[in-house]
Write a structure and sequence with these properties.
Blueprint (H helix, E strand, L loop, with lengths): L2 E12 L11 E11 L3 E14 L13 H13 L6 E4 L1 H25 L3
Antiparallel strand pairs: 1-2, 2-3, 3-4
Length: 118
Amino acid sequence: MAKEKLVVIKEAGLNNNCPECFNQDLKLTFFQKHTYGSFFHKITSDLSNKLVCNTCHCTIYPVSWTEDIERMFNYYKKTAIPEKKSSKPTLLFYALMLTLVAIVAAVIYLYITSTIQF
């Protein structure tokens, strides 16, 4: 089973008013999803975000965003540059491939040496 991890790619402090407590201390965070499996480490193109008030510690969902918050969100979304989508094999993958190649080579060698008789 692959493990998923959200990696922070951009954090920004906003001076907009919180819709819950009306303080001006918000933090906007953008995440990129990484998956770690036994054989591959994948960087996906999935982006997510979270807007939290640092005063009342509540998550502010897009339904309650004001126009000012949405405008700032769109600006920071353009500046959040994610890593390229990629897939990298792990050491276990390389070890398994090396073992399979060695087994195939050994079988071919034994087949050749047992059929050729001088």
